[in-house]
Design goal:
This protein is mainly alpha-helical. The protein is 61% helix and 5% strand. It has a two-stranded parallel ribbon. Helix 1 packs parallel to helix 5. It starts with 23 loop residues before the first strand and ends with a helix.
Length: 174
């Protein structure tokens, strides 16, 4: 989700010990992104685009299935050159589907690029608010604790700043 954000609360030279006890906190970045309205809008947009592409992929799959079934029915009646032509058409249609899936949904595909371009500014806002919370609360480090990444295996609820971050994001404070 988000990279852990942590900055010393006071001006210290790197490697020097903090003047008081070390203050730590954590946030659940998944929860922050689920509840931040800008992130919700981005996710709605991405879901819409994804559904549209998925529908097109399903249409291509049904077209291939229909043409294949038609070919199987007519194959005994076709001349060899017509069979070859139809087989080639089926192969090309199948390859179009594979290429479409890769272009849209592959790790380097359009959905990944769109997700990155739309979510990066949202994540930057979240990081800025996390940094502000860390400074305001005089925390040296804020760790991430979410469902996918358990950087913090245990944290007392009084050190959970997730709701404060969400509140500030919703109020537009950075």
């Amino acid at each position: 989700a988000l990279a852990a954000a942590g900055h010393p609360a006071s001006a210290q030279t790197p490697g020097s010990a903090p003047s008081g006890p070390l203050r730590l906190g954590f946030v659940n970045s998944s929860k922050v992104l689920m509840e931040f309205p800008e992130a919700q809008e981005v996710n709605k947009k991405l879901d819409g685009v994804s559904r549209q592409w998925q529908s097109e992929l399903e249409r291509l799959g049904k077209e291939l299935q229909t043409k294949y079934e038609d070919f199987q029915k007519k194959e005994p009646l076709l001349k060899e050159d017509e069979k070859q032509l139809r087989r080639q058409e089926l192969i090309e249609l199948e390859q179009r589907g594979i290429q479409f899936r890769q272009e849209k949904f592959g790790s380097e595909g359009q959905l990944a690029a769109l997700t990155d371009s739309l979510l990066t500014p949202v994540k930057q806002k979240v990081i800025k608010v996390i940094e502000r919370v860390a400074k305001d609360e005089k925390l040296q480090f804020i760790f991430d604790r979410n469902d996918q990444i358990m950087v913090v295996l245990y944290g007392d609820a009084k050190f959970d700043f997730t709701n404060l971050v969400i509140d500030r994001l919703k109020r537009g404070q950075q």
